[in-house]
Specification:
- There is one protein chain.
- By secondary structure, the chain is mainly α.
- The chain has two domains: 203 residues, Alpha-lytic protease prodomain-like, CATH 1.20.1510.10; 76 residues, 2-Layer Sandwich (Alpha-Beta Plaits), CATH 3.30.70.1350.
- It contains eight helices and three strands; from the N terminus they run αααααααββαβ.
- A three-stranded mixed β-sheet has the order 1-2-3, with helices on one face.
- β2, α8 and β3 form a beta-alpha-beta unit.
- α2 runs parallel beside α6 and α5 packs antiparallel against α6.
- The chain is elongated.
- The mean pLDDT is 83.
Length: 291
């Protein structure tokens, strides 16, 4: 299965899981007197829309290059990630506002059985995070990484809800708002996760440097017979692919044809040895004579 299929199937998995959990959390929150669970349901509902955005972004990003987009359509991924972050910030704001309103309004203690529901949700969401984050690393997808952190933030809000409801049940009358304070704390976690998602996507848009991949490109280049060294090496990410501009040092007495053939061997070797490389541009330069 190629990276595109892995990414798309992972996105479908997230949509199905978030839809089911939004319904379960909403019903449990209403009938179990728990605003923390209702807040969880709100976040899962926004997760559904963000996962749909991720699905759209993945499909668009894998369109082939054309005359108007010679490097492909991969830059849509970080743009989609920004929208996902916006959904996170929106849900955190709604949860915080409603939590404060509930803290100021007397209400009943949540039902004990809501803890069982939350326990199952926590296990499921953490498992979902691990599945999606692993596949985001396989595919180098920033939008899938954002989707994974949605699952992790959901697990965190469920943990805080579990703690809040437990305090309310153990404390009894006077501790009813512990559930709401838990939801308020969860909103702060969601905002922090939003930043963790936003920062790498911003780096991708700004073409920040990839040190480890750059060193790998230089190392592989030196394994090609005729390459005496490397000079400039620029790497930038677009979607799930990395584009490389490399200045390679060769014998200055080579003919133009020999230099051209050597550059092609180097390019083919890089594409073969390093997964997820997209376009590779080789600039041949004469090496300085030794001594």
């Amino acid at each position: 299965m190629d990276n595109e299929q892995i990414a798309l199937r992972t996105s479908y998995f997230s949509i199905a899981g978030n839809t089911a959990l939004a319904i379960v959390k909403g019903l449990a929150g209403v009938f179990g007197n728990s605003y923390a669970l209702i807040a969880d349901a709100i976040e899962s509902t926004t997760d559904i829309f963000s996962s749909l955005l991720v699905l759209f972004g993945l499909k668009y990003a894998h369109r082939p290059a054309d005359d108007n987009h010679p490097y492909g359509h991969g830059k849509i991924e970080p743009l989609i990630t920004f929208l996902v972050v916006a959904f996170l910030v929106f849900s955190a704001t709604v949860i915080a506002y409603e939590s404060i309103e509930h803290i100021r309004t007397p209400h009943r203690i949540p039902r004990p059985w809501t803890l069982i529901v939350l326990g199952i949700i926590i296990i499921w969401k953490e498992a979902s995070y691990r599945i999606v984050i692993r596949r985001s690393r396989i595919t180098n997808s920033s939008s899938l990484r954002a989707d994974a952190w949605h699952h992790r933030s959901d697990a965190i809000t469920s943990v805080t809800a579990f703690v809040g409801i437990s305090i309310a049940l153990l404390g009894g009358p006077g501790y009813e708002s512990a559930d709401d304070w838990a939801a308020l704390l969860a909103s702060a976690f969601i905002l922090y996760n939003a930043y963790l998602i936003f920062r790498p996507a911003l780096g991708e848009i700004m073409d920040e440097h990839y040190d480890e991949l750059t060193e790998e490109v230089r190392s592989v280049a030196l394994t090609v017979d005729g390459i005496r060294g490397t000079e400039k090496c620029y790497v930038r990410k677009s979607g799930t692919s990395y584009h490389v501009d490399l200045h390679a040092l060769v014998d200055g007495h080579l003919t133009v044809t020999q230099g051209h053939d050597l550059a092609h061997r180097l390019k083919d070797t890089l594409l073969e040895q390093i997964p997820n490389l997209g376009q590779v541009l080789i600039h041949v330069e004469p090496a300085r004579p030794v001594g």
